[in-house]
C-alpha cells in the first residue's frame, strides 16, 4: 500500500532527532494601575473618629443638658425644697453643679462608647492621653503663668456682676465650685476640646488653624457664664490657645489637662486667700474664670 498523500498523516522522520516543541504564545496581563497614595494627615493627627462624630457629641450634650434642666433636676430639688419657686431653684449653685455632673457622665459614656464600641480602639490611647509623668509639674507651671492674661481685665470692659458670682455667695457653694473647677470641669473640657475636636480640625487644616478653631468655641462657651462679656471671652480664648498649643506640641491631652488644672487651681487658691476662705467675696480682686 502506498503512503497517503495527505501530509498531515505523514509518519515522523526516522532520523531519531527530537523535534522542537511548538512554543506557547504568552499574552502578558496588563500591569495593575497604581493606587493613589492617601495624603498624609496634616499636623500628624489622624483620629479614628470624624467631624460628624464630634458634632453628635455636641448634640447629645445639648439635649442632655436641656432635659436635666427642665425635667430631672427640678424634680429632685423639689423633694428637698418643696416650697421653692422654679426661679429660686435655678439660682441654687448645687443644682447647676449636679446638672453639670450628670451631663458630663452621659457625655463621657458616649465618648467611650464611640471610640471603643464603634471604632474598636482603646479610649485613652485614641485620644492621646499620654501622661507626661514627672514632667507634668512643668505643665502645671504653664497654667500658673497664664494668670498673666487676667491682667488684661484691667484694660477690657468687664462686668461687675456675672451669673458665675452666685457660685461664690456662700462658702460651701464656693468650695464645691472650686473642687469642681480643678477636677471634673477641666477633665471633661480637655477631653472634648483638645481630645476630640482639635485632632479633627488639625487633620484637615493643620495645627495653626486647629489651635485657633479649638480655642474659639472654648471661649464662646463662657459667654453667657460671664455676663455676655466679650472681654471675658477674649481672656478665655487666649487661655484656650495656650492649652491647645500644649496639646499640639506634646501630643498629650494629659499635658493640657495639667495646665488647665494649674490655671484654675491657682485662681481658686488666690481668691480663697484674698476673701478669707470665700467669706468676703467683695475683696476678690481677680476675675474668676
What does this structure look like?
The structure is a single chain. With 289 residues, this protein is mostly helical. The protein is built from ten helices and no strands.
The helix tally amounts to 10
| Oligomeric state of this protein | single chain
**What's the SSE pattern?**
HHHHHHHHHH
Main sheet properties: none
State mean pLDDT (0 to 100 scale). 84
- Tell me how many strands there are: 0
Low-confidence stretches: none
Q: How large is the radius of gyration?
A: 33 Å
Helix percentage:
55-70%
Strand content: under 5%
Q: Shape from CA axes? A: globular
Classify the secondary structure makeup into a structural class.
Answer: mainly alpha
End-to-end separation? 119 Å
Task: Give short descriptive properties of this protein.
mainly alpha; 57% helix; 289 residues
Helix/strand layout:
Elements (H helix, E strand, L loop, with lengths): L50 H30 L5 H5 L2 H26 L4 H4 L9 H10 L25 H11 L2 H22 L1 H14 L9 H21 L2 H22 L15
